[in-house]
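User: Sequence in, structure out. Go.
Assistant: Echoing your sequence, followed by the structure tokens.
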Amino acid sequence: MRFAILLVACSTFLGTAAQADEALAKAKNCTTCHGIGNKIVGPSYKDIAAKRASEKGAEAALAAKIKNGSKNEWGQVPMPPNQVTDAEAATLARWVLSFK
């Protein structure tokens, strides 16, 4: 019984965290250009995660790109800098990389 309660509590927490990160992505307008499984203006989150899967320091590198922007990595359309804190950028990077 205790195991069942622990399992429900963990799944609730993890589900809430994923929803919170998706809410942050929507609040910061990330979903205007990126879809989970489909390219909009920029690559999908799944494509980003696949590209970065074996990269050492991927979370920090992606967080920097989220905060500072990037260009010429996924084509000619640049990603502008985003108005996010370092903590928000790290949260978003971790969430995007979870789609591998």
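User: And one key feature?
Assistant: The mean pLDDT is 85.
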